[in-house]
């Protein structure tokens, strides 16, 4: 039987978890021999039996998940690369300028929140809300699965299914947040080590946020790859079970999901079981409104708009990263943080 092998571009991937979502969708087609998605290079390689499926069906399966397929493009021209670097540099300069102006305006005004006051749960909730558009591609199929089974039942049964899924997902996120907080407390058993961990976590969050804001492939290298056996386990088990609560519990194991990685790192950086659990509870709750109403959302909001909303979540993740980095500076005992640095800068120039 003749085999076909093609490599093509796929845009719209935001993290390693998108690789698993694409591979799972393609593997459901008949005649697929192998599929390999590459988030960093934005490409997918598929081998299939020509008599059983086609490239058009493969494209359709991927696009149904919210991604866009196209033939492999030529290497990015040098001019375009320089343009991307310029845009990223301009964005970083803008963020730095906002920090300086904000610190100068709030200096001497204790009633106005500053970076050292910690991570805002409101920001975490909004991050979760915007991340919900990303969750549609990752978890939307699971929601469709259990809602289809409940569609013939009564309305209360339909609502109860959503409630079970939401409770399962929130519990799973909260438990994982506590676990990462515990891990952070074990590794960072002194204030100095906790500061170093928060500096590293802050840098990771900033890089992940920049990845959401740009298509610069350099930032795509800074993500954790989900073990293949774990991704297969989550997608296979979620596809087979009919219990919405169990499906919700399994979503907490999607460690390859970029936004989830970022918040797990944030939880680990706190070095606290309670703080880690609280952060993931708030974030997980924020993802539910969009995900549970994604049928209406996808009809009201275009793919382009949803991509912009995901990019907006990148801005908030950068802000969270800066907060975490600032806390790390203070805990290391270096005597430096954003406020002291900007105060020194203003005393020199004013």
Radius of gyration: 22 Å
Query: Total strand count, please?
Result: 4
What is the rounded distance between the termini?
A: 77 Å
Number of helices: 13
Measured as a percent range, the helix fraction is 55-70%
Note the main sheet.
4 strands, antiparallel
The string of secondary-structure elements, in order, is EHEEHEHHHHHHHHHHH
Provide the spatial order of strands within the biggest beta sheet: 2-3-1-4
Would you tell me the overall average pLDDT? 74
- Domains (count): 2
Transmembrane segments: 85-105, 125-149, 170-190, 196-216, 245-267, 279-297, 309-329
GO molecular function: metal ion binding
Protein name: Heavy metal transport/detoxification protein
InterPro entries: Heavy-metal-associated_CS, HMA_dom, HMA_dom_sf, MerP/CopZ, UreH-like_TM_dom
Protein topology:
Blueprint: E1 3-11, H1 16-27, E2 32-38, E3 43-49, H2 55-63, E4 68-71, H3 78-106, H4 121-150, H5 155-187, H6 191-213, H7 228-240, H8 244-251, H9 258-270, H10 273-292, H11 294-300, H12 303-331, H13 338-349
Antiparallel strand pairs: 1-3, 1-4, 2-3
């Amino acid at each position: 039987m003749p085999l076909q092998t093609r490599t093509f571009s796929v845009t719209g991937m935001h993290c390693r978890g998108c690789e698993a979502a694409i591979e799972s969708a393609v593997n459901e087609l008949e005649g697929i021999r192998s599929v390999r998605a590459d988030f960093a290079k934005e490409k997918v390689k598929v081998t299939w039996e020509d008599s059983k499926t086609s490239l058009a069906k493969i494209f359709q399966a991927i696009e149904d998940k919210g991604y866009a397929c196209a033939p492999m493009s030529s290497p990015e021209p040098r001019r375009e690369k320089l343009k991307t670097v310029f845009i990223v540099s301009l964005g970083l300069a803008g963020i730095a300028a906002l920090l300086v102006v904000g610190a100068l305006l709030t200096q001497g005004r204790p009633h106005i929140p500053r970076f050292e006051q910690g991570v805002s749960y409101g920001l975490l909730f909004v991050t979760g809300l915007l991340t919900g558009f990303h969750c549609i591609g990752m978890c939307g199929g699971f929601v469709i699965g259990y809602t289809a089974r409940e569609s013939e039942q009564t309305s209360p049964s339909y609502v109860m299914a959503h409630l079970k899924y939401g409770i399962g997902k929130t519990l799973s996120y909260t438990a994982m947040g506590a676990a990462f907080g515990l891990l952070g407390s074990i590794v960072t058993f002194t204030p100095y080590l906790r500061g170093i961990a928060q500096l590293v976590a802050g840098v990771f969050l900033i890089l992940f946020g920049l990845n959401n804001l740009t298509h610069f492939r350099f930032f795509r290298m800074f993500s954790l790859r989900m073990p293949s056996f774990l991704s297969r386990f989550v997608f296979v088990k979620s596809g087979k079970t009919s219990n919405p609560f169990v499906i919700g519990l399994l979503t907490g194991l999607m460690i390859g999901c970029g936004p989830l990685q970022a918040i797990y790192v944030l939880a680990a950086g706190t070095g606290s079981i309670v703080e880690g659990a609280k952060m993931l509870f708030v974030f997980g709750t924020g993802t539910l409104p969009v995900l549970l109403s994604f049928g209406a959302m996808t009809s009201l909001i275009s793919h382009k708009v949803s991509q912009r909303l995901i990019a907006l979540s990148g801005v908030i993740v950068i802000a969270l990263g800066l907060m975490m980095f600032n806390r790390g500076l203070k805990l290391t005992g270096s005597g430096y943080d954003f406020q002291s640095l900007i105060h020194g800068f203003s005393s020199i120039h004013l």
